[in-house]
Amino acid sequence: MSKNWINYWSKKNIWGQSYIWKKNSFIMFSNIKIFLSIDDIDILDIGCGTGELIENLTSEANSICGVDISEDYIKICKKKI
């Protein structure tokens, strides 16, 4: 994998603190609930970022595992959850 990709997602950028990103995650969560029953299932969130979607899913899913290329985002996600 290209180091440019890793470097891009590891640096400070607008997505980590963006209200738009948080709102987008909530809208995605709302749509997931409409089309899928997520009660008591296990979820793998690939590219979880700072955990916005995971934060919404924790009350619904059995277990959630988030992975991301950015170590900084994983640290933020762990602090949240």
Overall description:
The structure is a single chain. A two-stranded parallel sheet has the order 1-2. The chain is 51% helix and 12% strand. The protein has a single domain (3-80), classed as Rossmann fold. The model has no long low-confidence stretch (mean pLDDT 81). The chain is an alpha+beta fold and 81 residues long. Strand 1, helix 3 and strand 2 form a beta-alpha-beta unit. The radius of gyration is 13 Å and the shape is globular. The chain has helices at 3-10, 19-35, 52-57, 71-80; strands at residues 42-46, 63-67.
The counted number of beta strands is 2
**Helical proportion?**
40-55%
What class, by secondary structure content? alpha+beta
The chain-level mean pLDDT equals 81
Rg over CA atoms: 13 Å
Find the CATH topology.
Rossmann fold
Q: What's the number of domains?
A: 1
Measure the end-to-end span: 28 Å
Q: List SSEs in N-to-C order.
A: HHEHEH
CATH architecture: 3-Layer(aba) Sandwich
User: What is the count of helical runs?
Assistant: 4
Major sheet: size, sense and barrel closure?
A: 2 strands, parallel
Relevant CATH superfamily: Vaccinia Virus protein VP39
Shape field: globular
